[in-house]
Amino acid sequence: PTSRRRQPRTTFFSEPSRAGRMSPKRKRDTASSPLVDPLTSPPAKLPKKPSVLDRVLYALRILKLPSSAQAIIKTCAAHCDYADAAKIRKAIKSGLASHALQTAPESAAKFWIAGEPIPQTAAGPAVAIEDTKEGKGAAVEKGDEVFIDYELFLKETGGKVEGAKRFGFVQGGGEVIKGMDAGVLGLKVGGKRTVNVPWQLGYGNRGSGPDVPPCSDLTFKITLVDIKK
């Protein structure tokens, strides 16, 4: 009798091999990791016999941003079944020495793949400044002691919250909200400006007393009275 050739079965979804399937425990570990999205496939595969440095590079491609040693260690554990923290830190050090890795411009404690463009993080909230009168003399720089007249308003309603004359603080010293700190930079004596401050750089999600509700955007009207270098 003539043998009939078996037709290949048509599938519409790729089926993972038995070796490639994750155990239920492994699946839970990956899903619970705050560092990675378990639904996003890694951009590349590990070699069959990866070195520790291979695992570090693989983890960075999953993280998609310059990352700390601790973040790399956690990602190696979640995606590479490898959790020897001491050897991972040693591999990062050797990767820097061999120029397989580079440090991030903003922090020597964060690492990225050498020769590849460093991904940019999304810009955070920032103050919006409108100068209404030009001042004279030196401009405010970080660390200067400044004295200002100011009025504070809620941006949404325009309601006045408070005001003060010759209010003094050290720029960058953490004595005022971040929006105020940023808002005086570059201002000259006699200069006036309006500074719009997003709530993240103001009083945050707690607000301030009964007059500034949580998550309130603010508007400052500032006049620089004096500056001490």
Describe this structure in words.
This protein is 23% helix and 28% strand. With 229 residues, it is of the alpha+beta class. The chain has a five-stranded antiparallel beta sheet with strand order 4-9-10-6-7, with helices on one face. The model is unreliable at 8-42 (pLDDT under 50).
Q: How do you describe this structure in short?
A:
The protein is α+β, with helices and mostly antiparallel strands and 229 residues long. Helices cover 23% and strands 28% of the residues. The protein has a 5-stranded antiparallel beta sheet with strand order 4-9-10-6-7, with helices on one face. It has a 3-stranded antiparallel beta sheet with strand order 1-3-2.
Backbone shape: elongated
**SSE string, helix = H, strand = E?**
HHEHHEEEEEEHEEE
Report the helical percentage. 10-25%
Q: How far do the termini sit from each other? A: 102 Å
Number of strands: 10
Give the spatial strand order of the biggest sheet: 4-9-10-6-7
Give me some keywords for this one:
alpha+beta, 5 helices, three-stranded antiparallel sheet
Topology:
Layout (H helix, E strand, L loop, with lengths): L23 H9 L19 H12 L3 E2 H11 L5 H13 L3 E4 L2 E7 L14 E6 L2 E4 L5 E10 L5 E11 L7 H7 L3 E2 L2 E6 L20 E11 L1
Antiparallel strand pairs: 1-3, 2-3, 4-9, 5-8, 6-7, 6-10, 9-10
